[in-house]
């Protein structure tokens, strides 16, 4: 046991072909445990967000043309970290043992007596098959599947590919990896060796990502298709009678938001859910966070006094709940707030409170300040109420004015700070030139900061060229006031609502 620990541990993990959610649960567990991750070029970098905050992430990718990181160097690095006693994840595109040199790394670890495990991944052929709608087998027509590489070890004296034999196989799906640069020659060889030039085939470029493109045609036409469409790696070529099914089974590229490039403005640490939802819809995400949040430390006596001084605590954001709870960390004298009633501005905030076992006495029927004010006023006698609003430094809305006016005592407690981001000129220009389809604003504060960061004039002209989505009427108004001409606003005032609205808008446009 002692020896094992001093040597560290290596997980060779398959990351799948692109969609970060194709990582296996076991792969995710390994990622969470890792001290160091060594990742490849084809690994989706959003997957690294799954790792621990303190985990070191090292790019060891190989570019197709230049060999930036020779295999020996990668092996040496893995060994170095393992010998330091670290838990290392070697994260590889697709599956580690399918054209991924995972076997070489595993043998190397075996030789050096480093304990390891290999966690499979969705190989590109499988990802392309599912996401482009080309089943690899089909009971009536295809009974065998073959994966081959068009790019062999250049030091081999001659090709080991049995193209002659492959060309004669019937009822077979052939998946060709690494064929972007020599698709022409491999197709020629296959046809020369007797494969039917009219075999139905497909090329799937960037499978399982928002850039996925599927082209179907006859085998003989593939090189022309690749040239005409300027296809680039990574792509797989699938020669299969099942390629005809793509027309009906390509669910991914037919999603209403597929391939849409969407700018998000939320703080990164609050964007996980939004990123996940957009990824699921096949969107390309351009993160442009306009602020980040930071906890404000509250002196413990202030927390303990709440029960004495107030009848109500009002939470108006999930952030407020999280940062408040982060302040209530004293396990021994933890206040239980039994004597205080609790109000939440909406379901999401109430859910967050429930996570900490808070009983929520009041949630309005709709998520907006009017509903809150109307219903709160009707239910409770505010003339006598002493109310504390738990909030971030920026929050100031009609609810504050209302409470100030109608309650016996109204106080606020800022539990987190909003810090405006300060991106460089280059980063701003990158955004302005990124040619997105749409942008999402999830709070009025993001609108204010977006205009301040980008500059009033540039921000306005940028936003008037793309579709602008807002989470609700307050954010919508902030945008309209800034001179944005058209703003789509969600009725539900939730992220789910925004995504549904985007789908509706784009679906209508298609028709
Ligand atoms: N171990 C990987 C393969 C690595 S070799 C796996 O199991 O998928 C790299 C080749 O994989 C690329 O040249 C391409 O043929 C294929 N590939 C990887 N990701 C891909 C993707 N998203 N779309 C299409 N092909 C992909």
Can you put this structure into words, describing what you see?
This protein has helices at residues 2-7, 25-33, 71-83, 102-111, 124-132, 163-168, 183-192, 222-228, 246-249, 272-280, 300-309, 318-327, 347-355, 369-379, 398-406, 425-432, 444-454, 456-463, 473-481, 495-510; strands at residues 9-14, 36-39, 56-59, 87-92, 116-119, 144-149, 172-177, 200-205, 213-218, 235-239, 261-264, 284-287, 291-295, 312-315, 341-344, 386-392, 409-420, 438-441, 467-470, 488-489. The chain folds into four domains: 9-121, Tetrapyrrole methylase, N-terminal domain (Cobalt-precorrin-4 Transmethylase, domain 1), CATH 3.40.1010; 126-249, 2-Layer Sandwich (Methyltransferase, Cobalt-precorrin-4 Transmethylase, Domain 2); 261-290 and 424-510, Rossmann fold, CATH 3.40.50; 294-420, Rossmann fold (3-Layer(aba) Sandwich), CATH 3.40.50. The longest helix has 16 residues, at 495-510. Helix 6 links the parallel strand 6 (144-149) and strand 7 (172-177). The chain has 511 residues and is an alpha/beta fold. The chain has 20 helices and 20 strands. Strands 3-2-4-1-5 form a five-stranded parallel β-sheet, with helices on both faces. The N and C termini lie far apart (64 Å). The model has no long low-confidence stretch (mean pLDDT 91). The structure holds S-adenosyl-L-homocysteine (SAH).
């Amino acid at each position: 046991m002692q020896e094992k620990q001093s040597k560290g541990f290596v997980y060779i993990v398959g990351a799948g072909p692109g969609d970060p959610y194709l990582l296996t649960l076991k792969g995710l567990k390994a990622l969470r445990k890792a001290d160091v991750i060594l990742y490849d070029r084809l690994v989706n970098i959003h997957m690294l967000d799954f790792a621990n905050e303190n985990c070191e992430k090292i790019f060891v990718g190989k570019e197709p043309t230049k060999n930036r990181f020779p295999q020996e160097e990668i092996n040496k690095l893995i060994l170095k970290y393992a010998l330091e006693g670290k838990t290392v994840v070697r994260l590889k595109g697709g599956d580690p043992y399918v054209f991924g040199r995972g076997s070489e790394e595993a043998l190397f670890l075996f030789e050096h007596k480093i304990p390891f495990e290999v966690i499979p991944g969705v190989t590109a052929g499988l990802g392309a098959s599912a996401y482009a709608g080309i089943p690899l087998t089909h009971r009536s027509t295809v009974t065998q599947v073959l994966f081959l590489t068009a790019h062999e070890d250049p030091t081999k004296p001659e090709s080991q590919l049995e193209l002659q034999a492959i060309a004669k196989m019937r009822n077979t799906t052939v998946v060709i990896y690494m064929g972007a640069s020599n698709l022409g020659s491999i197709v020629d060889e296959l046809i020369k060796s007797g494969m039917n030039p009219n075999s139905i085939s497909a090329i799937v470029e960037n499978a399982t990502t928002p850039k996925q493109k599927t082209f179907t045609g006859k085998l003989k036409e593939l090189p022309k298709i690749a040239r005409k469409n300027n296809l680039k790696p990574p792509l797989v070529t699938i020669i299969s009678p099942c390629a005809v099914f793509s027309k009906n089974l390509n669910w991914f590229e037919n999603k209403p938001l597929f391939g849409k490039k969407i700018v998000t403005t939320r703080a990164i640490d609050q964007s996980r859910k939004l990123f996940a939802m957009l990824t699921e819809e096949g969107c390309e995400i351009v993160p442009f966070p306009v602020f980040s949040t930071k906890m404000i430390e509250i002196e413990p006596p202030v927390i303990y006094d709440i029960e004495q001084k107030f009848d109500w605590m009002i939470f108006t954001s999930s952030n407020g709940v999280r940062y408040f709870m982060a302040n209530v960390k004293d396990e021994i004298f933890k206040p239980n707030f039994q004597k205080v009633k609790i109000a939440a501005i909406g379901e999401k905030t109430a859910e967050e409170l429930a996570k900490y076992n808070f009983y929520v006495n009041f949630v309005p029927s709709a998520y907006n300040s009017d509903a809150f004010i109307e219903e709160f006023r009707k239910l409770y006698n505010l003339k006598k109420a002493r109310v504390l609003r738990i909030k971030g430094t920026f929050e100031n809305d009609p609810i504050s004015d209302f409470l100030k006016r109608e309650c016996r005592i109204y106080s606020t407690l800022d539990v987190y700070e909003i810090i405006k981001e300060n991106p460089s000129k280059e980063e701003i220009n990158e955004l302005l030139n990124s040619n997105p389809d749409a942008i999402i604003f999830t709070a009025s504060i993001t609108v204010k900061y977006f205009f301040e960061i980008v500059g009033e004039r540039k921000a306005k002209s940028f936003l008037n060229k793309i579709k602008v989505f807002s989470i609700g009427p307050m954010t919508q108004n902030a945008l309209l006031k800034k001179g944005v001409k058209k703003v789509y606003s969600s009725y539900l005032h939730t992220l789910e609502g925004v995504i549904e609205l985007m789908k509706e808008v784009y679906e209508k446009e298609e028709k």
